[in-house]
Amino acid sequence: MEYNAAVRHYTSAIDKGPAAPLLFTKRAAAFISMRQQAQALKDLDSALQLDATFVQGFILRGKLLRQSCSLEAAEVDFQTVLKLRPGQKVALKEVDSTRLVAKLLGVLRSMPLTVGSADVVKEALRQLYEEAPDCLPALLVEMQVSTLHEDWDSVVALTGKVLKAQPHHLEAMVLRGRAYFYLNDMDTSKRHFGEALRFDPDCDAARKAFNRVKDFIKKKKRADDAIAEHKWAEAEGLYITALHVDNDHRLGNRELWFGLCRSRYQQSRYATAIEACNNVLILHAGHLDARLLVIKSLMGQELWQEAVTKAREAAGAERGNRDVHELLQDCERKLKISLRKDHYKTLGVHKDAANPEIKKAYRELAKRHHPDKVATSERKEAESRFMEIAEAYEVLSDSEKRHRYDNGQDEPQQQQHNPFQHGQQQFHFQWGH
Question: How far is CA 20 from the centre of its chain?
Answer without folding.
Answer: 56
